[in-house]
Amino acid sequence: MLNWWLPENVSTFGRDIDWLFHLIYAITAITGILVFVALIAFLVMYRDRPGRRARYTHGNTTLEIVWTIVPALILVVLTFLSVPAWSKIKMSQPPTDLVILVNAKQFNWQVFYPGPDGKFGTADDKQFLDEMHVPVNKPVKVILKSQDVIHSFFVPSFRIKQDAVPGREISAWFDATKPGKYEWPCAELCGFGHSGMKGWVYVHTPADYEKWAAENLKADAAPAQEEKPKS
Amino acid sequence: MSAHSATAHGHATTHDHHDMGFLRTYVFSTDHKMIAKQFLFMGFFMMIIGGLLALVVRWQLAWPETPVPGLAGLLKETGGVLEPSQYNMAFTMHATIMVFFVIMPILAGAFGNFCIPLMIGARDMAFPTLNMLSFWTTLTAGFIMLSGFFVPGGHAAAGWTSYAPLSAVVEYTGVNWGQNLWCIALFVMGIGSMMGSINYITTVINMRAPGMSLFRMPLVIWSLFITAILLLLALPVLTSGVAMLLFDRALGTSWFRPSGGGEPLLWQHLFWYFGHPEVYILILPAMGIASEILPVFSRKPIFGYHAMAFSMIAIAFLSWIVYGHHMFVSGMNPALGMAFMVSTMIIAVPSAIKTFNWLGTLWGGRIQFTVPMLNSLAFVSMFVIGGLSGIFMASTPVDIFIQDTYFIVAHIHYVVFGGSIFGAFAATYYWFPKMFGRMTSTLLGHLHFWPTFFFFNLTFFPMHIIGVGGQMRRIYNPMQYEFLQHQQHWNVIITIGAIGLGISQIPFVINFFWSIFAGKPAPRNPWNATTLEWQAESPPPHLNWGPTLPTVHRGPYEYSVPDDPADFSPQTQPVRVPVGGRRH
C-alpha cells in the first residue's frame, strides 16, 4: 500500500530494495495488526468489572520460548534475504567503461568526465555543474569525493544513497533502466545551503547519449562549463 | 518539620526531619526526593523550549519562508521569516535539548533519583552530596547550552549529531561560539551524568533493604540500574568526543579535519558508539515504568518477570554492537555494515519479548483505565510502531533508501516521544502522589492524554509516508524539490498535528502546578500497589522510613494472590503458609 508513496524506481538494484521493502512492510504490518488486535481485545475483555478477580500467573515458559524463537527466526531469515542485495549494491561493481567523478562541495555537485584520455585530473577533463548525463541500461561507476564537509549522493528514483566524505574516495554505481530526468538531492546536512543543493541526472537512450557525448565530451567540445554562482 | 530534630540529632537512622533551612532543603538539598523534583522541573522547563523549537521547524516545513507567528519581534530583518541557518539551528537545538536536557533529566535524573532509594528500601542515595553535585552540574550544563542562543553567529547548527567536519570548522556553518558552547555544555553534562550513574549503581548494589534480593527488585529499578551502567560506560565516549571536537575548533588539532590528516568518520564512530546505547538510555527507564504500572492497574503480576529483566540485560549488552547501523551509507566498510545488520536484527528480539510480556500482563487482568495506565498503554502501543519501523532500517539495502529521510524522523519520534515521553507522563501521574503528597486531577489528566495521543499520531505517522516518498530530513524547504512537491499537503497536516500536540500540553502544565498546591491530599498507597515506596508516607519524610527499614518478604508484583483476600500483597507483607503457585 505504501507503494503509492515510493518514488518511481528506475534502477536495476532498486527492484531488489523495493522487494525487500515490501516484504518488511508485509511482515511488520501483519505483526503490528496482530499485536494491536490482541491489545485492544485484552483491554475490552479484561476491563475492570465488579466481582471478577485477575488471573494470578507469573508467566509461562513455553510462551516465552515461542515468542523468543519465532521473531528471532523471522529476523534471521530477513537478514539472509538482505545480504545478497547489500553485497550486490555496495560490495561489488559491475564491469563498465563509464566512470564519472563527482566532487561535492558546499552547495553543488561538480561532475567530471575523464575526456578522451580516460584519466581524471588531466587537462581534457570535462566538468559540469549539478548535472550528470548517462546512457540507459549501462552500469555507471561514480567516484565520490568532497572538498569540504560530508554530503550524500542521493537519487531517489535510483534508490542510491552514498555519503561523500572529505579525504576519501568512495565508489558507487547504478544502472538506470528508463530514460528521463531524475532529481539528485544532497541527503546529508552540509550547511545553510543544504536545502536546495541538488542536481539532475539525465538518462538518455544510447543514441541520444552518443549525440550528447559527441557534443560535450570530445576533445574539441566546448570548454568545461564555468561555475555559475548559486542563486 | 523540626519537631524531632533536637532528640534525633546525629542519628542517621532515626525518623526525623533535620531542620536545615530553606537553602539546604529546597536548593542545595542532598535529599534524593528533592533532587528528583529539581530534575523534574528542569526537564519540563526545557521541554517547553525544545517543543517551541520543534514548532518553529514545523512551521517552516509546512509554510516555507512565511513569517513564523511570534517571531517577528525576534527576527527583525526578515519580519519573522526563518533563514536557512536559523532553521538549522532550530532543529539542531530541538534535538539536543530534548535528548540531553529533557528526557535524560526526567527519566534517569528525576525518576532514577526518586524511585531507586524508595523502591529498594534505602534512606537515600549512597552518595547524597555527589547526587546534589550531579544535579547542579547538569543544571549548569543546561545554562551553558541555553547561553548559546545569545552569542553572535547563533547556536550550533550542524545537527544534534554534529557531524564533522561541518561541526569542526567555523567557516562551514558560520557558527563560532554556539558550537563551542554546545561542546562545553555536553562535556559538563557528561560529568554530571557520570556522578549520577556511579551513585545509582552503588546504591542499587549496596543499599537494598533486608530481603530485597536482586530478583525481588521492581523492574523499574532493574531498568534504571541497567541504564546507569550504560550511562557510565557510554557518556564518557561522548564527553571525550566533544572535547576532541572543541580542540579541533579552538586549538587547531585535527582529529576530525581531513585537511590536517584527521578522519571525519572517527567522529561518527565515537558519536554513535555513545549514541546507540544512548537510545536505550532514553527508552529503558520508560520500559521499566510501563512494567511497573501495567501490573498495578491490571491487578496482576507482571508476566515473565525474569524474561523482562534478562531481556533488558540483553538489550544493554547488544546496544554496544549495533551502533554501526547509523553508518550504513557513511563510507564505512560495507562488510562491517553486514555485521551490524546481523546484530541490529538480533536486538529486535528482546524488544519483542518485552512487548509480548506486556500483552501477557494485560491478559486475564482486571484493567483499570487510570491516567498513568493510559499513558503506559500509549507507551506500549507507540513503542510497537517504533520498534517495527526500526526493522526497515535494520535491513541494509532498504536503509540505503530511507537513511536520512523522514522515515527515520518518524521512527525516532515513535520511540523517543511515543516511548520515552509517554513513559515520562505515565511516571509523573503515577508517582506524583508520592512525590508531592497530593493527587493530580483525573479530568485534566484525561484532557491531557487523549489529545496528546491523537495529535502525536497525527504529527508523526504521516512522517513515515513523506519519508517513503523520499523527503530528506533537515531540509529547509521541501518545495525546492520537484519530486517532493506532490506530498507537501502532508507537511501541512503534520504541522497542524504538531501545533495541536503543543496545545495539548497546557492541561498537563495546569494539572501539574494546580495539584502541587491544591490537589486532594494523597494517602500512602492511592493505587493499592505492592512496591516499597507506597509503604512510606506521602510525601516520604527526609530519610524516607521510620526508625526501622522495611523488610522485604516477597516479589514486587503480588497482585490478586489466591490466598489473600486483598487483591494486592505488599512486598513488606510476610508470606503465610505457602499454598502452591510460584513465589518470587
Task: Please name the fourth-level CATH homologous superfamily of chain B.
Answer: Cytochrome c oxidase-like, subunit I domain
Q: How many DSSP-defined strands of chain A?
A: 10
Extended strand count of chain B: 0
Give the overall average pLDDT of chain A. 92
Uncertain residue segments of chain B = 1-16
CATH class of chain B: Mainly Alpha
Name the chain pair with the biggest interface and residue counts per chain: A-B, 84 and 102 residues
Strand content of chain A: 15-25%
Superfamily (CATH H level) name of the largest domain in chain A: Cupredoxins -  blue copper proteins
What is the rounded distance between the termini of chain B? 38 Å
Q: Which structural class do you get from the secondary structure elements of chain B?
A: mainly alpha
Number of helices of chain A: 3
Protein architecture, described:
The complex is a heterodimer of chains A (231) and B (584). Chain A is of the alpha+beta class. Chain A has two domains: 2-48 and 55-90, Helix Hairpins, CATH 1.10.287; 99-216, Immunoglobulin-like. Chain A has helices at residues 12-45, 61-90, 206-216; strands spanning 99-105, 108-113, 126-129, 131-135, 140-146, 151-155, 160-164, 170-174, 180-185, 198-204. In chain A, the strands form three sheets. Chain A has a five-stranded mixed β-sheet with strand order 3-2-1-5-8, with no helix packed on it. A three-stranded mixed β-sheet of chain A has the order 4-10-9. In chain A, strand 6 and strand 7 form a beta hairpin. In chain A, helix 1 runs antiparallel to helix 2. The radius of gyration of chain A is 25 Å and the shape is elongated. Chain B has one domain (25-535): Up-down Bundle (Cytochrome C Oxidase, Chain A). Chain B has helices at residues 5-8, 21-27, 32-62, 84-120, 128-147, 170-173, 177-206, 219-250, 264-298, 305-318, 334-362, 371-394, 396-402, 406-436, 442-468, 488-503, 506-518. Chain B starts with a helix and ends in a 66-residue tail after the last helix. The chains are: A alpha+beta (231), B mainly alpha (584). The interface between A and B is large, with 84 and 102 residues.
